[in-house]
Write a structure and sequence with these properties.
Helix content is 27%, strand content 13%. It contains ten helices and twelve strands. α4 packs across α9. The two termini are 31 Å apart.
Length: 291
């Protein structure tokens, strides 16, 4: 497993005073749906103000880090828009980036994939803020000071156009007109249609395999050891055509799958950014029920 993608909490704690380090808190509040169509999301800024890792700055995935012209939440903004938003957070050439969230890391994985798709290396705090608190590591509160940004500081990017899949590509895979395997990162009950969904219709995209993101984690909230991840991935993805096009409800849990598979050496991965929020909203597009 790559030491450059996950960072253990004690290692990050030892580097809190490193001036070359930018720590981003990507927390979003997204409660489980109580009934079909129950979509509620809120910024994690309030939780950040209550408690955060010292020196961290809040990265608002509901704000500057989303494309608000898209027909679904949390859409990837243009590379230029994302680059400028990251620069305002203090990320410039030569800085190291660590991302965490208030849970075990799904939101952090989402932001990690966004940065990766424009060529910016980052690490995710393994176990997230929950693990940080369990280890009784330092905590701060209140607003973070604005990061110092030199007027001439730049942030170089390199766009990977294959990091994301769109609806047309997913439709082509469903029709067997394009290679690839669809992978659903939602729970088995949501995949099968047994559980309520916050989206327009229940079910999964036909032909997709179920690889729940929550199964990636150990009891302490850290990612499971590499052999366990590999066994789980092999059981679901044996003989799967590439690319692996991963989706969930809104491209969040899918990013945890993408991170875990990247740890295992997989490179032919894409995330369907619109995921079920976009797909289920169009009644002409098929959804399957059952396992």
């Amino acid at each position: 497993m790559s030491a450059h993608i996950l960072i253990p909490a004690p290692e990050l704690a030892a580097r809190l005073r490193d001036p070359q380090l930018v720590i981003l808190d990507a927390t979003v509040v997204l409660p489980s749906p109580r009934f079909d169509g129950d979509y509620r999301s809120a910024s994690g800024l309030g939780r950040f103000r209550e408690a955060h890792i010292p020196g961290a700055v809040f990265a608002d995935l509901l704000g500057d880090l989303s494309d608000h012209t898209a027909p679904f939440h949390f859409a990837m903004p243009s590379p230029a828009t994302l680059t400028e938003a990251l620069r305002r957070l203090g990320i410039t050439d030569g800085m190291e980036v660590v991302i965490y969230d208030g849970e075990s890391g799904l939101w952090a994985a989402r932001l990690w994939w966004m940065l990766r798709s424009i060529g910016i290396a980052a690490a995710v705090l393994d176990g997230g803020f929950k693990r940080w608190r369990e280890l009784d590591l330092p905590i701060d509160s209140g607003d973070a000071p604005s990061p110092p940004i030199a007027p001439t500081a730049s942030l170089s990017t390199r766009v990977d156009a294959r990091a994301w899949a769109d609806r047309a590509q997913v439709e082509a895979i469903v029709r067997h007109e394009s290679p690839g395997t669809l992978v659903c990162a939602l729970s088995a009950d949501v995949y099968s249609g047994k559980a309520p969904t916050r989206y327009a219709r229940r079910g999964h995209i036909p032909g997709s395999r179920n690889f729940p993101a929550r199964d990636l984690f150990a009891a302490d909230g850290t990612y499971a050891p590499a052999p366990d991840l590999a066994r789980h991935a092999d059981a679901v993805l044996a003989a799967a055509d590439r690319p692996l096009v991963i989706y969930c409800g809104g491209g969040i849990s899918a990013a945890a799958n993408a991170l875990a598979l990247t740890l295992l050496g997989e490179r032919d991965i894409q995330i369907y950014d619109g995921s079920l929020e976009e797909w289920a909203a169009d009644p002409r597009l098929p959804l399957a029920l059952g396992s």
